[in-house]
């Protein structure tokens, strides 16, 4: 098991944002986390990455080593830096890049940071920095932004910035990648490119995805977990979750029900993003 939570809970005063969640992720899975506004999705990610400390419960993570998976370690009280160094990287709902740096420098900085505090020492072998640039260049090739390497990041399109965020999260080759609404604000034309990138990344990384695009989630996910009012109300293959009555009632609003006689089209799912009450570092529940 790559990641496991037991009774994971986060309270903000009288509000329980995440309520006793038992969750497990196998290595190599692409699992999407869905649910209505305020369901606790981003708070769940913030707990997994050390941005927030749980009120109750535990988180265990088994990073891969040179000889295969290592014994699971308790990361319940780990800081964001510690969870990142352990092998859990993430992107955010709101674009989180250095706008005045080049595309290449954004990824290079992330590659250097992924090596830990020693990577920022002044007196270091120049070959180490060459390794960071080589890794960054390879990542840009993978995410389709090699031609934009010297472009100032603020001049990218929104879709390109979302792809770059995934590239930044890939720096250091994490065991687990958490993507928080990677298609948010992306044009319909750009969504297909981001989805293709996610599928490519999931071929050799474990991925957890928060996403409001229900059709996309149903297409790309190995598993879907559904949060509602902080509780995990469903967890399984897309086809099972799509037909779950509790999920229909709480979130999907008819998506996946029996096809209509006229058009044979599924009713559209509730595409509401987990906006409004979004958690930031030290912030309140989503």
TrEMBL record:
Residue spans of biased composition, Low complexity class: 270-280
GO CC annotation, single: plasma membrane
BP-aspect Gene Ontology terms: amino acid transport
One Pfam match: ABC_tran
Protein name: Probable branched-chain amino acid transport ATP-binding protein LivG
SMART domains, alphabetized: AAA
Ranges where the record places region Disordered: 253-286
Protein species of origin: Halorubrum coriense DSM 10284
Annotated ABC transporter domain residues: 3-254
SUPFAM superfamilies in alphabetical order: P-loop containing nucleoside triphosphate hydrolases
Record keywords: Amino-acid transport, ATP-binding, Nucleotide-binding, Transport
Gene3D superfamilies: P-loop containing nucleotide triphosphate hydrolases
Molecular function (Gene Ontology), one example: ATP binding
Skewed-composition ranges (Basic and acidic residues): 256-269
Function: Probable component of a branched-chain amino-acid transport system.
Top-level taxonomic group: Archaea
